[in-house]
Amino acid sequence: MSLLTVSGSPHVHEKGNVSKIMLFVIIAMLPAFIASAWMFGIGAVKVFAVSIIACILFEWLVQKFLIKGPNTVSDYSAIVTGMLLAFNVPSNLPVWILIIGAFVSIVIGKMSFGGLGKNPFNPALVGRVFMLISFPVPMTSWPKPLESASQLTDVITGPTPLGILKESSNVAEAMSNPAMPDYLQMFWGNMGGSAGEISAIALLAGGLFLLLTRVISWHIPVSFLLGATMFAGALWLADPTIYIDPLFHLIAGGMMLAAFFMATDMVSSPMTPWGMLIFGFMGGVLTIIIRVFGAYPEGASFAILIMNAFVPLLNKIKPKRFGEEVKNG
Amino acid sequence: MLKTFKLGGVHPPENKLSAHKAIEAIEAPEKIFVPLGQNLGAPSVATVKRGDKVKTGQLIAKGEAFISAMIHSPVSGTVDKIDTHIDASGYRRDTIIITREGDEWEEGIDLSADLRKEITLSPQEIVEKVKASGIVGLGGATFPTHVKLMVPDGKKAEYLIINAVECEPYLTADHQLMLEKADEIVVGVQILMKAIGVDKAIIGIENNKPDAIEHMNKSVANFAGITVQALKVMYPQGAEKQLIKACVNREVPSGKLPIEVGCVVQNVGTAFAVYEAVQKNKPLIERVVTVTGKNVSIPSNFMARIGTPVSLLIEKAGGIPEDNGKIINGGPMMGKAINSTDVPVTKGTSGILLMSEKEAKRVREYNCVRCARCTTVCPMGLEPFLLGLAGESLDWEIAEKEQVMDCIECGSCQYTCPSGRPLLDNIRLGKFKVGQIMRSRKN
Questions:
Q1: Is residue A141 over pLDDT 90?
Q2: CATH-assigned architecture of domain B123-280
Q3: Do B12 and A322 touch (CB under 8 A)?
Q4: What is the pTM of this model?
Q5: How many CB pairs under 8 A join A and B?
Q6: B347, B284 in Cβ contact below 8 A?
Q7: What is the pLDDT, as a whole number, of residue B442?
Q8: Domain termination residue (choose one: A138, A163, A184)
Q9: Does A105 fall in a domain?
Q10: Which of B371, B400, B428 best tests the A interface by mutation, with the highest count of A CBs <10 A?
């Protein structure tokens, strides 16, 4: 008989690991990717390919030559970051800017802290905000959906619904703008915007898949959308001529992407149910505050990054311990 | 309606391969190894010496400390020597080694199969009898049973809860015992009720044993006060605090015993041992042991004498499979991996689980991705990732502040961790160190 293995209990392990979780996230992003390719054509595919390859390459280089550790590409987290980064940029973004964004995401946002699991901020958002501040013009000229899908170069750009709203002085003016899509078009994704944020239905389908496979819990997406709806709703009730209804906020811009894919990044979100609920709710409120009162038309990225900074504080909210309050009966 | 505990829990594959295999008594080997430290608390002190003749059921070691237990000879024969021998902890510990000669029982032990229902002893006499018979918790914790039966002054027991959950995957010893000895168990339950002075007893059984639930329900039908509670399958429901929560919805406070909420919990196998001790005068010298594993040719439930080497049990179950990598004393979630098949069966051995090379290996380790699954599944509401980190960084202050001592070591966190972190390894280290610090503070 060969030697016996001796190790501490438990001796069995649930099926599944980090790679599988990342794979599920990638699968969940596919509907939005398909919607993006449908609306923006080859440009979107190019942005996805460049972003993913650049992220994998940077992670591999850092791991091999700086950290000198084992290859971590096989955990697929670089692919997830790459896809999320591509989701957050216009599909006509010049490739060189995107590569700089991937560098910031992976090297500064993730690997400089020690790699997967160590980063305090969502790496894709770090890259996205870096690009938005450094290259504001290319990062805010969005190709028109469908029309630009067949075009390889010289795409026609147009505004996003949130951009139109920001330019207009009141709701009626924004709604009468011929470039403003109707709600159904916005829901399906026929609107200007970043590559992966346009189709609310595709993102919802992906989010539902993540919830059903237990990759994410309901706390953050539900509280995020609830926070946004309640704050936008309060403003709307106060003055519906100036503030648009909450439904618009839910389907415009990156709200769905933020609620299901960006805020739920397990590494940079809180770890207890109450922490998650506060994190999500405040993220939703901040998104609306930035959209309505800030200089930028969209605020989801900033809102999540700000809430990421609060995570260590939110983690001080402890779960209810067993036997904490004695209930007899 | 099915009940369960509310906080955390996991549901590993049940793999009850030896379910419904009749309990098979196996003959004791020529040499038997009886360790002196078989129970939680102080080891027993040998009362026999080399060359002494002993009979089956004769007292051979005394538990002198408050938390300790008597040990009786599992066979008749001659004491070969008192020497160190390997036990499930992996260390060589003091052991009485007996060479078997026939099977001659001590006088006054009723070996007939008759069911004796009338309970003639007083509560005090029952506790004395349980103590004299060397009974300890047979679920695996091996806490001396008589200590649990002595309700402290100022406390009152309301419920006796019988742990027949068997939430560990693979193990079927309690299940089979209920199918074969239901009436005896029910008398045992009544004896325990009398000892602690309660009129209500709940037998908690998980719903994956519907035949046992039905069988026990038939046996308790004529006894007011004893109910069978079907429980939803959820690990670790067999943990004392979780079982109380599931059965009577009370939470034992941190660092306190079940009596704090008016409960006394006893394992179903213990109830059977109490029946045999009180009604038949038979001390605890044998127990049901499940021998199982995916590659084991005949997964079985054996009635084995204490001190029987594990190797004999495995042989009876078809021998060690070819690619065997690990042998576990107990179940896969909380059992201990043993390093030798010379390890003897003790009072706490509920099963022997054999795992292949592939199953024996741990999964790949990644960085913690802070997914919080460990926090979600922890039945004690702790944050295992934080306790694990405290253990890794040797920060015992944090470990104590985050209530590491409340951990029941069920292993749910490590079982579910997608990063394959050795959470429980680090938490155990933390419990050990914090325990030391707390004791030194008291002195």
A1: no
A2: 3-Layer(aba) Sandwich (3.40)
A3: no
A4: 0.90
A5: 170
A6: yes
A7: 85
A8: A138
A9: yes
A10: B371
Please classify residue B255 by burial: count the beta carbons closer than 10 Å to its beta carbon, then call 0-12 exposed, 13-18 middle and 19+ buried.
exposed
The proportion of chain A whose per-residue pLDDT surpasses 90, expressed as a percent, equals 65
Residues A129 and A218 in one domain: no
Distance from CA of B400 to the nearest CA of A (A): 14
Closest Cβ opposite residue B369 in set A6, A117, A327: A117
Query: Which candidate from A9, A322, A323 shows the least CB-CB separation from B335?
Result: A9
Count CB neighbours of B107 within 10 A: 9
Segment B106-110 mean pLDDT: 91
Where a domain ends, among A119, A138, A157? A138
Task: Give the integer Cα–Cα distance in Å for A69 and A71.
Answer: 7
Q: Is A316 on the interface with B (CB under 8 A)?
A: no
A86 domain residue, yes or no: yes
B185 inside 8 A of chain A by CB:
no
Domain span including residue A74: 18-138
* In a domain? residue A42: yes
Q: Measured between CB atoms, does A319 come within 8 Å of chain B? A: yes
Q: Which helix (H) or strand (E) holds B79?
A: strand B77-86
* Tally of domains in chain A: 2
Tens-digit pLDDT profile for residues A204-240: 999 999 999 989 999 999 999 999 999 999 999 999 9
Closest CA in chain A for residue B406: A322
Give CA–CA dist A73/A116, Å, rounded.
10
pLDDT over threshold 60, residue A327: no
Interface ipTM: 0.89
Q: What is the CA radius of gyration of chain A?
A: 21
CA distance A60 to A193: 31
Do A301 and A203 fall within a single domain? yes
The residues, ordered by sequence, that sit 6+ positions from B390 with a Cβ below 8 Å of its Cβ are B396, B398, B399, B402, B404, B426, B430
pLDDT tens, position by position, A142-191: 888 877 666 666 567 888 899 889 888 888 888 888 888 889 888 988 88
Name the residue among B336, B378, B418 with its Cβ closest to that of A17: B418
